[in-house]
Amino acid sequence: MNTEDTEGGEGFTLPRSRLANERLHALIPGGAHTYAKGDDQYPEHLAPVIDHGRGAHVWDVDGNRYIEYGSGLRSVSLGHAHPRVIEAVRRELDRGSNFVRPSVIEIEAAERFLATVPTAEMVKFAKNGSDATTAAVRLARAVTGRPRVAICGDHPFFSTDDWFIGTTPMPAGIPATTTDLTVTFPYGDLAATEELLTRYEGDIACLILEPATHTEPPPGYLAGLRELADRHGCVLIFDEMITGLRWSEAGAQGLYGVTPDLSTFGKALGNGFAVSALAGRRELMERGGLRHSGERVFLLSTTHGAETHSLAAATAVLTTYAEEGITARLHALGERLASGVREAAAGMGVGDHVVVRGRASNLVFATLDEKGQPSQEYRTLFLHRLLAGGVLAPSFVVSSALSEADIDHTVDVVAQACAVYRKALDAGDPTPWLTGRPVKPVFRRRA
């Protein structure tokens, strides 16, 4: 690893990654298949292009090894190439991957999922989270006969589809008539949500939200939403893409004891393999099936939704979580990391500027300027120093493959980064410690 230490980190370079990024941009719009993986999310010319990963470590095309956090945008929670998952997939490799009729593994995966998430009665698998959340919204509209969707305005992402993207700073190509059918409510505020439901009485098909993010739900909040949805006749949807498995094996609904009508899972479900799930009450889910007398709902119909390798991976992941206490391990590792980072930041005098937030299994960090405001410039400085120390961390979301030694090394690197952060704060300007443009928000109107 190139860790030559200079005041501004100038000794850390990634020449092969830089060339690979140029090739990516020439072939792929944005240079990545997910905006959050774009090189604009990293210091200029310092976005590593990954060659391979194992456990909690990845190696870039320049030969540098990193301790990795937020692996696969939170999807690789067991670590790369996890033995139980790989073995389950390997058993299917020479048995075929997709057939003209359902395979027996679809039964096994569904049974395992519903045993893990007993608050759901039926499940349907897909390949990505957007398909699942859009199917949930479509189903809610069908069963209620209502057009409007109410999304939690405090949560960053629900779908790539028009009903959500039209509400972001990137609405190009989406008709206003579509966006007008989506309204927002604030997280944690039952009174404001009830006011919204009353204002659009009989018009809102569903409430969709992440049950928890970097803040815990206020006491009684989720139960209050359940009561509001019942009283106003709309469908309550929990987006458990992130909370699923990380909050508890049964997701946030299992932890907090509030059952939604529908819920969507992904991320950790496949440990990097492409699989997502829509789950919920039989009465609703069956409207997308064949055993009812009502109008049919086009729920989910995907060529690759039942691809055997990903369902084998999901089954292995769910089994591993249940048998090995993975959720508890994620929390223990996260608590060790959060404690260490907070202590390191405080020790360098930047405890009010480098701030760790969130549940221990899903930690994020904020980088604040001299006035305590979020700063892309200070985030750039911080990420640069982490990279130079062998830590790839757009967040501090842990995987169970991390060792205590990995955590301790990360804390040491954070302390070094915080020392530079303090110098920049004292100077009142982080610019001398930057080597190019600042990192950019994912959602913005202009490239």
TrEMBL record:
Q: Which GO terms of the molecular function aspect are on file?
A: glutamate-1-semialdehyde 2,1-aminomutase activity
Q: What is its EC number?
A: 5.4.3.8
Q: Which cofactors are required for activity?
A: pyridoxal 5'-phosphate
- What are the record keywords, sorted? Isomerase, Pyridoxal phosphate
Is GTP-binding given among the entry's keywords?
no
**Transmembrane spans:** none
InterPro entries the record matches:
Aminotrans_3 (IPR005814), PyrdxlP-dep_Trfase (IPR015424), PyrdxlP-dep_Trfase_major (IPR015421), PyrdxlP-dep_Trfase_small (IPR015422)
Spell out the Gene3D superfamilies in the cross-references: Aspartate Aminotransferase, domain 1, Type I PLP-dependent aspartate aminotransferase-like (Major domain)
Q: Which family does it belong to?
A: Belongs to the class-III pyridoxal-phosphate-dependent aminotransferase family.
**Could you tell me what this protein is called?**
Glutamate-1-semialdehyde 2,1-aminomutase
State the organism of origin.
Answer: Streptomyces tauricus
